[in-house]
Specification:
260 residues; Rossmann fold; 10 helices; 38% helix; globular
Length: 260
C-alpha cells in the first residue's frame, strides 16, 4: 500500500477515474508519447515505464526492450493495464515515482511520458530513476514544463480571478535537477497545441484526462458559474483565438538522460 500525501491521493483518484476512457480522449498525450519513443536509440533488456497509465505505451515499448515493468501511482490505471494487456513480457506495479520499491541498478533503461510533472520538486523522482538504473543506462523522458496552459492562465488573470493553473517547473530547472542527480543530459523543448470550440470543451479536455488536479492550495478559489465561464471564454477569445477556436498549449521538456 502506497503511503500517499493528500495531493498524491487526489492525483491517483483523478487518474483512476479516467482509466476506462483515457485512451479515447488523450490524443495530445499520445502524440507526446510518440515523440518520446522517438528518442530511444538502443534496445534494452529490462525497461521501466514510470507513469505507465493504461499500459498503451508500455505495450509499444516492447519493441525497444525484452521486458517492461509499468509503474503508476494510480491503482485504477494499473488495474486497467493488467486487464487490457496480456503479455509475459509486461508486468505492472502500483507505486510512487518518488519512492520506487525496486532494488538498485535493476534496469538498463527507463521511460516516462507526461507523468513526472506531478512530482514537484522533481529531484526525488530523478534520484529514484538514477538509483534503479545500471551504470551507462539511459532514461527517455517527457513532462510538462513552464509555459503549459499559458493561454488559460492569461484568461483567468484577465477576468480578475488570479492564477488557477499549476506552477509547472521551468525547463532549465528540470535540466539542472537531472544534472544534480548525476545524469548527463540531452534536452529540448517542444510545444503541442490543441484547439477547442468553447471554454467548456477546453476545460473538459483537461478534466477528462485527470490533468485538472492542482498541485497547490486552491482553498480560496470558488468554481465559476456559467456567467463567469462565459466571461473567461470571452477573454480567451479576445487574446488568443485562432480561426475562432481556442488554443491550449502543452509545453514539453524532452530529456535523454545517461547515468555516467
Amino acid at each position: 500500500m502506497i503511503q500517499a500525501s493528500p495531493l498524491k491521493e487526489r492525483i491517483a483518484e483523478r487518474f483512476s477515474r479516467a482509466a476506462s476512457f483515457y485512451d479515447k480522449v488523450a490524443d495530445v498525450q499520445y502524440d507526446i508519447a510518440q515523440a518520446t519513443l522517438a528518442l530511444i536509440d538502443k534496445h534494452s533488456r529490462k525497461m521501466l515505464d514510470i507513469g505507465c497509465g493504461t499500459g498503451r505505451i508500455s505495450q509499444q515499448l516492447l519493441s525497444h526492450a525484452d521486458s517492461v515493468l509499468g509503474v503508476d501511482l494510480s491503482p485504477g490505471m494499473i488495474k486497467f493495464a493488467e486487464a487490457t494487456h496480456n503479455s509475459s513480457r509486461l508486468s505492472w506495479l502500483n507505486a510512487d515515482a518518488e519512492d520506487l520499491p525496486l532494488e538498485e541498478q535493476t534496469f538498463d533503461s527507463a521511460f516516462s511520458s507526461m507523468a513526472l510533472q506531478w512530482c514537484q520538486p522533481i529531484d526525488k523522482a530523478f534520484g529514484e530513476i538514477h538509483r534503479v538504473l545500471q551504470p551507462e543506462s539511459e532514461a527517455y523522458l517527457s513532462l510538462m514544463c513552464k509555459g503549459s496552459f499559458a493561454e488559460l492562465e492569461n484568461a483567468w488573470t484577465a477576468i480578475g480571478e488570479g492564477k488557477r493553473t499549476n506552477d509547472f517547473q521551468s525547463h532549465n530547472n528540470i535540466v539542472d535537477a537531472a544534472k544534480a542527480c548525476g545524469f548527463d543530459v540531452v534536452d529540448k523543448t517542444q510545444s503541442f497545441v490543441t484547439y477547442h470550440d468553447t471554454i467548456f470543451e477546453l476545460l473538459g479536455s483537461i478534466k477528462a484526462i485527470g490533468a485538472n488536479t492542482v498541485t497547490r492550495s486552491q482553498s480560496d478559489k470558488k468554481m465559476l458559474d456559467r456567467k463567469g465561464l462565459l466571461a473567461l471564454e470571452n477573454a480567451y477569445r479576445q487574446n488568443h483565438a485562432r480561426d475562432e477556436r481556442l488554443p491550449l498549449t502543452y509545453q514539453i521538456s524532452f530529456l535523454q538522460l545517461k547515468k555516467s
